[in-house]
Amino acid sequence: MRAFSHRSRISQLGYQPEEYLGKPIIAILNTWSDINPCHMHLRERAEAVKRGVWQAGGFPLEFPVSTLSETFQKPTPMLYRNLLAMEAEELLRSYPVDGAVLMGGCDKTTPALLMGATSANLPAVFVPAGPMLRGNYRGKVLGSGTDLFGYWDEHRAGRITDCELAEVGRGLARSPGHCMTMGTASTMTSVAEVLGVALPGSASIPAVDSAHHRMAASAGMTAVRLVQEGRVIRDYLSREAFEDAAATVFALGGSTNALIHLVAMAGRAGVELNLDDFDAISRRIPVLANLRPGGEYLMEDFYYAGGLPALLAQLAEAPGALHLDRPTVGGGTVGEHLADVHPNNPDVIRSVEEPCDPEGGLAVLRGNICPDGAVIKYIASRKPSLLKHTGPAVVFDSYPQLRENIDDPKYNITPDTVLVLRGAGPIGGPGMPEYGMLPIPKYLLEQGVTDLVRISDARMSGTSYGTCVLHIAPESHVGGPLALVRTGDQISLDVEARTLTLDVGQDELDRRRTEWRRPEPRYERGYGALYQDHITQANQGCDFDFLARPGENPQPDPH
Known about the structure:
Layout (H helix, E strand, L loop, with lengths): L1 H11 L4 H4 L4 E6 L11 H14 L3 E6 L16 H14 L4 E6 L4 H12 L3 E5 L6 E3 L2 E3 L3 H11 L5 H11 L11 H12 L14 H20 L9 H14 L4 H12 L6 H10 L14 H6 L2 H9 L18 H5 L24 E3 L8 E3 L11 E9 L2 H7 L12 E4 L20 H5 L6 E4 L11 E3 L19 E5 L4 E4 L3 H10 L10 H9 L10 H4 L11
């Protein structure tokens, strides 16, 4: 009777039995929505995926899933990354599908879809949304995020007018697609490609290029083939794959957010990855991509220069940098896909002999203020002398407090100050918002000061820059040592030594701890309460503890 009911209902959808019987059923998980400019073309691109599925003999079904718009969702899509991961996992488990095409690209959608698909462990292929076209302002090339921050500071300092700023705003984002700098979006889609779960060369194709249509159709065909071959997503997600993903993040000069996502993604695949692994890899991997915010060019230039395959081919010249015998959803191994691949522009994609930086541009710090670690993208510092610096702290307990008071001279913020923000971590934020590029006081900008040492338990946009220490763990909200810092305390940063130290005696810290009180829970019910009760810290990937733990769930009873 149930089977009869199902046949009746699929007939109601307008399908005939010969369209689906005996064919691989491919779920297309689409993060399109009217409020996500990064994905506004994915409604159309899903049709190309369907075309590929049909051509390969499969039967496509499109499912709308959470969109996680980086530009509009409050307080941050990071609060909802695990919600999309849960939705993707349970959708793939509970519906009668054999494989999946995952469509995303805006920062949190890539890790969320891959986390969910990994836990469901069906055949799956990821379709990157693709970067938008270059920005433009009076003949100058603009990079989303990076130039937004730069021109906003120019406006605060009184060096450009309201009208000029408005013109910059109109020129920053000129097409569908995610940020075209090497921010979190391009970092994570590149991660998907190097992991082997996206088609080779797919991550850097501009969203509006005709090659993007063809790639989407190929992904649909690939999903059918993976089902026919019985290749599930975890077949590609080995320890070696995640080591190569980390190496690629550093070679790209990629986003600090990738560390959190990679820890969570690896955990879903049963691979243990920690901050010490990242630091060790960073020390031996050079930065080869000359891309903003740490370099000069944008993703469109990177695509024309050969894209990720060209960068990986260069990186493979470094001994032990990559594991070239890994499989990919494109068929064949990583090494086979890189054969005879060379950069078309050696200034955009550098060689290991002439890198942008001899090390990965990112460091993991330890010290009494961050016993479980903190990260800094030192290649994005605007004042390298600050990478070894000691100065007095000026502490803000929340982002609203900082926003309201940062320009007030009474705080006596100077170029030597270490700006401290707390209450912005996974629970305190909530969701660990991208507050970490703390604003510089207007009066310092007017004096030409472009950088300060800034530390927080927050994240920052992958398009951001500056001497910003991020992801301090444990966060202040749970009683991490950051909660004990007071204005006037001396803080020492030494990136080369990988240390961040609060220069206060242990006896005094113990005394302060007796006075500290944990903030009251923010949420009384709903998803927020679930989140605050189960979220892990930044060094653990900010996954939910009940999702991150090992174990398998049974398939639902189809009756």
